[in-house]
Structures are given as structure tokens and as C-alpha cells.
Amino acid sequence: MPVNILQINVGRSRAAHDLVLATALRENIDIALVSEPNKALAKKSEWITDAKGDASILFINKHIKISNQKKLKGCVRIDTNKMNIYSCYISPNIPINEYKETTDAIMQDVMDQGKEAVIAGDFNAKSPLWGAPLTDERGNYLTDWVATLDLTIHNNGNPTFERGVSKSHIDITMTTNRIAAKVKDWETMDEETMSQHKYIKFHISTMIGEKRQWNKKPYLDKATFRKIVERELKNDSTPTVDNYLSIIASAQRSATMTRKGKVEVQPYWWNDEISQKKADCNAMRRRITRNHRKSPDASTTIMEEQLKQLRRELQKMIRKSKREQWRELCRKLEEDIWGDGYQITRRHLKIIGMPCQLEDNEKIKMVEILFPDRDDQWKRGPLVPNPPPFTKEELDRAISKIKIGKSRAQII
Question: Where are the beta strands (DSSP E) in 223-328?
Fold first, then answer.
């Protein structure tokens, strides 16, 4: 089963951060690599984030086995049984010396690990090697490391960042040489991200986890069940107990369905209005792109303002939907304390960071270290023959140390 990966810089935007999960679920993504995540949202337990909150990794496919995770300067790394995956971000505002130090830390770790690796993120560097028309000092320095480690660049020349007529190629996907041939279908997605960066999507044709098992068990469509019951009761205003049970049984049979293949999953706040507004943003973006290709004029400026307005409306709709869902959850909690609110709380208490799954040989090694097989480890100390009895003074001192509220008579 290939591993599907989504890469994006969300620019700290809460709305852009929210859309990452919605897009990942729709596109059947296993791992999302996010630069400049929203710091508040990235603190949630399912995100793995570096110390400064500049780079994050989100696992959608929980079957992927992780043996270790490490926070480095400018990136976060997770280790799987087949490869290491790096999510990176280096700010364009830092001095060149600091840029080199951060790049050195990332690439030196790749070298020290000696393992196949995927290195992806916003490096804010320019070079024709990944599609930029010009080269800057940062690009030259990063290119030297690419040559040193024999890395493969997977960018196809399409810009990954757009702001008006300005375009650049600063989001890069690199892999070590042996795994490069397994990277397929690298592309920049032409859709609204609520960020100035584009989604990058690709997959790796290697197994680093178990295949997803989609639930194909029968399930009850509650909305259909309710409609059938209401319709039948409306026709029979005074049903007997037997009739009532018959209506329930018939409605259950009619409303029971079987899931086939992948079930469409979206975040709890997603609705038809948000979906339509996002589609409007996509359509406007494409119109602007087509206009730029021809000859930008006054209509382009008008359309860009319209796109900004659509984005603001989409952002407000997401916030409004989240508030409404929160109020509904609180209302349900008053009715049933063991309902959705309880289940959500349990999930968050259960997951503290991404659990590390050890291989069998690593488990055996850990047990040997914790419980060494040594005969002299558990030898008893010398026994004192006939220990002297305690005195009355020693007993009085012991009683005086008992906490207030304890009965001395019970002790004596």
C-alpha cells in the first residue's frame, strides 16, 4: 500500500490549518507535513511539533508504526521501519549564518542516521534545481548539501507560493537516492488553501504501516430511521404496543445499510455551506490564474479583491460552524454525560503524543537492560541474629510522630 503525503505551509493561519485536515481526509492522505502551523492548534496531542512550533507532522493513518521521534532545530523527525520523515521550516528573516547552522543541523542528522529519508518543507531558498529562475546564497548552500548527500529533488518546476503576480519555488521535497524511485505523482494541487502556499501531494510506493481497514459492518442511518418512524406514527396516531414494535423493526431494517469501500470522512465542523464556499474560492482562483496568463488588467484586480472577500467569508463560516458544534456538544452533554463529550475526552486523555512502536529486537534489548540476568543482583544482606527488643522510650518517640487524627490506642 503506498503512503500518501500532503505538504503545505499554512503561514500560522487557523483557517488554513483547519483546511489541512479536511483536505487530507478527502484525498486519503496518511501523513501531513506542515510548515508554520498555527501554534495553538499544533499543541493538540495528535500533532508532532518541533520545539519552536515551526514545523509539524500530523498522522491521519494511525496504523503507521513509529519507532522514534526527535525535535531538531528547524524541523521535526519521525522514524518508521523503512524510512525517516522530516518536516522542516527555515525563516526567510534569519541571517545567512543562522540559516547555514539550521541547514547543517538537519542535513547532518540525515547523514548520521544513515537511513532512507524524506525531507520536505519551506526552506526559503532559490535554485533552478527546484524550479526557481534565479539562485541566491541560501540556494547555493542547500544545493551543496543536496550534492553531498546525493539527494533527489522531486519538484517539477511548478511554483509552490503565489502572492498576486509574484510566484516562487520555496517549498521543496527531497529524498535519499534509493527511495527516490518510489516517490510517485508529485504535484502541486490547484485549490484553495487559505494560505499563499500550495498543497503538495505525492505518494511513496513502500509499506511503512498496515493497510487501512475500512469499516464494512452494517450501520443504522439515524436520519432515515427517524423519518420512517415519524411517517408511520403519523399514519397511525394511536398505535398498539405490537404495532409500535412492528414499526420500529421495519424502520430498522429499512435504515440499516452496509458501508462499501472508503467512507467519506470530514472534520466535525465541515458542512455543505463551507464546501460550497471553498468551491467558490477555487473557481475564483482559477479565473485569476487564467487572466494572469493572458494579460492582467483592471478586472484582475477586482477579482483578487473578490477572492479576498470569499476567503474572509470562508474563514468566518469555519469559525461559526466550530462554535455551533461546540454549543451542540455542550447541550448533548447535559442530556447524556456518557455521550460524544465523554468519548472525545477519553480519546484526548488516552493519546499523549504519538506512541512509539518498538520492533521485537528492540523490546528484547530493553528488557535485558532493565532486568539484567545476574546471580549476584539479588543477594540478601547479612542477617542480625536475635535483634534487641525496642525500649519504651523508642515506642514513645514513634507514637509522637503519628499524624494528628490517628488514634494512639489503635496503634498500641
Answer: 256-258
Range of the domain at 12: 3-204
* Cα-based distances in Å from 200 to 175, 177, 351: 15, 20, 28
Residue 73: phi, psi to the nearest 5? -70, 115
Q: How many residues are present in the chain?
A: 412
Residue where one domain finishes, among candidates 298, 333, 350:
350
- pTM, two decimals, is 0.71
Distance CA 20, CA 278 (A): 13
Count Cα atoms within 13 angstroms, Cβ side, for 385: 0
Q: Is 25 exposed, middle or buried (0-12, 13-18, 19+ CB in 10 A)?
A: middle
> Are 128 and 18 in the same domain?
yes
pLDDT digits (tens, 9 = 90+) for 286-306: 888 888 777 767 788 899 899
Rounded distance between C-alpha atoms, residue 30 and residue 203, angstroms: 9
Do residue 74 and residue 190 come from a single domain? yes
State pLDDT tens for residues 353-364: 455 667 788 888
